[in-house]
Amino acid sequence: LTVDGATPGGVVLVGLSITGQGPYPSYWGLADLSPPVHVLPLAADAAGLVQVSLPLNPALAGTPLFAKGVDLTGSVPTNSSFGMIQ
User: Which of 49, 18, 52 is nearest to 35 (CA)?
Assistant: First the structure.
């Protein structure tokens, strides 16, 4: 999972869902996720880039994954993201 354009050295709160698109009410408004939502706080580097790899059960391969984040420094939401677990 990669987020770019974040506040350099800031924190991005990323929500992940395998159950689909929302809406899911959050402090920052409606997120394009369906519960349950797993939330990860991730640190951005000096260039505003966040990258994380998550160890997942191989049985989840082919499962859709929905993600959305918010840059906590500016309270700016990311675009929604959709992909397949590989």
Answer: 18
Residue 6 tokens, joined: 């974040």
Contact (CB, 8 A) for 5 and 58 = no
Residue pair 37/82 in contact by the 8 Å Cβ criterion: no
Distance CA 60, CA 42 (A): 23
Q: What's the whole-model pTM score? A: 0.78
State residue 69's pLDDT score. 87
Find out whether 24 and 40 touch, Cβ atoms under 8 Å. Answer: no
Alpha carbon distance 50, 70 (integer Å): 12
